Amino acid sequence: MRSMTILLAGALLSLAGVVHAQSGMTLEQVAKLRAVSQAEISPDGRQVAYTLSVQRQPGVDDDGSAWTELHVADRNGSGRGFITGKVNVGSVTWMPDSSGIAYLAKREGDEFRALYRIPLGGGESRVIAKLKSDIRAFSLSPDGRRAALLASEPESDELKALKKKGFTQKVYEEDWTPVGLWIVDLDNDKAEPRKVPVEGSIQSLAWSPAGDRIALLVAPRQLTDDTLVFTRVRIVAPDGKVLGKVDNPGKIGGLAWSTDGAQLAFISAEDKHDAQQGRLMVTGRNGGEFRDVLPGLQGHVTDAKWRDGKRLVFIAHEGVEARVGEVGGDGSNPRTLLALGGPIWTGLSLSKQGDLALTGSTSQHPNEAFLQPATGGAARRLTTSNAWLSDVRMAKQEVIRYKTRDGIEIEGLLVHPLDRKGNERVPLVTIVHGGPEAHFSNGWINGYSQPVHVLAAQGFASFLPNYRSSTGRGVAFSKLGFGKPGMGEFDDIVDGVDHLVATGLVDKAKVGITGGSYGGYASAWGATYYSERFAAAVTFVGISDQASLVTTGDIPWEQYLVHMGKWPWEDPEMFRQQSPITHAQKSRTPTLILHGEADPRVPPMQSYMLYRYLKLAGKAPVRLVLYPGEGHGNQRAASRYDYSLRLMQWMKHYLTGPGGEPPAYQVDYALPKK
Asked: Model-level pTM?
């Protein structure tokens, strides 16, 4: 009897697995996805430390953003959690002798984020450096005996006392606090961190392997605009003496010293009008002149590290794919290490022997850790963070290409419905990326704001276009929308929908559009200017009035230099025509508007305006949902889950449901009981 019971139970479990596998993905599963966010190989090449992003479960955990755990795996992928649970570990760095791992965290009892060290061989973490404000970033000296720290200037006791008495006023763009540089002796527990005099506000740092200098990225002020477009390279001695500078032309990213400290690589914009850093530049140890070592690259470099004193290993996003390559610091002998068509690589690190640890995703799984031995060959996956995904049916994801009305070839991704009856036409949700300096890659694209596999499971196709102005196609392509926002860019999206209609896949009368930020702008444009083409729109933290965005958002210079090329008073008609509110009277599209109330990038006023214009036009349903405390994109688990539910509800109601009046504004969360 007992054996029969066991067999019956096993059969039921197998059947449940089959039923589950046939059902496709759910929003509840999207809300529990985990992903590797950083992978660092030890200097001796024996271990890979990685951070794992663990989402909080809506209705189960206390609300908040995802936790970040620290794990370590050996070269075979066998590993264990070092710091797990309700923790947020960041900036993982190996000690130079591979004996332990340094990281940033604010742990129980800490007033501020501190620098910790945990030994590889076992033992508890201990604080090795702390300041009177959160440590934002750090870099170890080559011998591991000192650390350079970045942190905001701490508040004075007088200011703290005044705040306790209610004097919490803010003086806009004047009471910013600079991020400064401190150096601490890690061998002396009693040594106080030493402040290093540096003019400006520091965004990033890298201590040279030669030990005599530190490369910094310095902005004039700690304001978003300054950090985006006015940050420049500065090279200083540990005492603060300026040893060199680089007059990089615009946006800038990662710093990487060659192993001998003779050269410094960084990822830069090509010029001040280039919307995204993506050129791999190299300069000398004292800065000055620099060179592009991959001139003419039809893509964007996203990460780079030195293999030795002469050659750089880099990740380049090219079209919807990613490649790992190698090139001399003088631009010589470029070659491919991991070809296009594999995982979408997002980060890399190197051991002293040249072993390569990477993070990357595919269409079947989110970011995981990989290892490519120094001897070459394929990169081997080390981690499986969502084993349950093997039991979920995944829809077909493919790359599509089409010509626009003016002859430009556009790439995009198409996720098919999970089940399609014969050749019947299906509803389509068009998902537009933000930026526009961004792009969709042919990896894992499923998330709370673009639940493509959930849509697929419910009969929808999803279309994700890399319209003109997207990255991944080189500088010239990314500049095609400069000075004329929305025009050709959003025509490209409609042309892509027409392409899918022409293939026989899509029902032209059942097309929706959604996206966030610039994608929210596109969605508002689809709901107004192109209203006859879209039966439903969901716009998130989107632009509705270009002129007021420039004057109320926190990136006016970025808008001017890399997007508009003009100020509103120089061409008011252009700003007016490219604003969705101008075309609100044309709207017949039911529109759901969502926005974080604390968004500084695209202030919520943009959504208030769109809502009121559409409401007063009175030609179609409109709803506005605000998320208190959220900024330019939702971070908390409850906000994300609510967003996903409302997005799915709106699209189903207007593309496959009854339509007409909006669905009830209350959402049934069906939360589990604690």
From this structure: 0.94
